[in-house]
Every structure is written in C-alpha cells, then in structure tokens.
Design goal:
This protein is mainly alpha-helical. The protein has a single domain (2-129), classed as Orthogonal Bundle (Arc Repressor Mutant, subunit A). The chain has helices spanning 2-21, 29-39, 45-52, 56-68, 90-114, 116-127, 139-155; strands spanning 72-77, 80-88. A two-stranded antiparallel ribbon has the order 1-2.
Length: 156
C-alpha cells in the first residue's frame, strides 16, 4: 500500500508542475485535493473534510483562503438551508480545466511508460469496490511489528 501513497504523491507533484507550466501558481496539497473533489462533484464542506481526513474547522479555514484567492465561492445549499455548497469561481474553473487536461496527459504518459495492459489493470483495481474501511491489524501482528523495531534498535 505504500506504493499507492507514492503514486498519489507522484500524481500531485506532476499535477502541480503541469499547472505551473500553464502559468498557474502552485496550490497547497489540501487546496489541490479540494479542487479535485469539487471537480468530482463533492461540494459540501463536511463531505470534503471527511474525504480529506481533516477537521471541519480546517476545511472552513482552507475554503476561506481559497475564496479570498478567487478560486471558489460558497453558496447556500438549495436542499438544506443550513449547509453550503462549494462552487468554482472563474479563476478556479480555469485551474480546474487545466488540471483535467493535465490529468489526461499524465494518464496517457503513464500508459506509454507502463503499457496499455498495465493501465487497464491499474484502472480496474483503483475503481473497484474495496469494501468497508480497514480498521487495523490484529493485536498480535501489531505487537510483532513493535517488537521487531525494539530488537533492531537494541542491536545498534
């Protein structure tokens, strides 16, 4: 699973560099991930916070920064008067379009590098239903990992 995390970093770095090449300023990773989520239709701040694994307070602060930068706006949710909906502002729409172009180019480049068959398998695995969230290793396995770290440290 570490490879999946490294792939995520590669994608984000590639996206940031592509956007910079198109004349956009780099975005902090959280803002970048908000842009991707909003592009995917996740528009409620509470849902964004849950997807990104950050607090509601942190998402509100980040959205306020993005709003001040002219990337997004918040409007009342027509289905729930207590909730807000995140929408792209003109500048944010431009970055969103540029990001979609960059992501498409990244996928084509990966296909060239890895091969069409590998990309089909990768897409199939990434879009598969992975089931409920993993909640942790059995206590015995966690203790073995913790114990192996202590043994290595004592050998030095």
């Amino acid at each position: 699973m570490r490879g999946l995390l490294h792939a995520y970093y590669w994608c984000d770095e590639s996206l940031q560099k592509s956007l910079q090449r198109q004349g956009y300023s780099p975005l902090p990773r959280t803002q970048s991930m908000i842009m991707v989520n909003v592009s995917d239709g996740i528009t409620r701040p509470a849902d964004l916070a849950r997807n990104l694994g950050i607090s509601r307070q942190a998402i509100q602060q980040t959205l306020a920064e993005m709003q001040a930068a002219g990337l997004i706006s918040l409007r009342a949710d027509p289905t729930d008067g207590r909730a807000k909906i995140v929408e792209f502002e003109r500048r944010g729409r431009g970055i969103g379009r540029a990001a979609l172009v960059a992501i498409g180019a990244m996928e084509r480049d990966l296909e060239r590098r890895l091969g069409a068959a590998t990309m089909r398998v990768l897409r199939k695995a990434l879009y598969a239903d992975w089931g409920p969230h993993f909640v942790g290793a059995p206590a015995r396995a966690a203790a073995a990992v913790a114990g192996s770290g202590r043994r290595k440290a004592s050998r030095r």
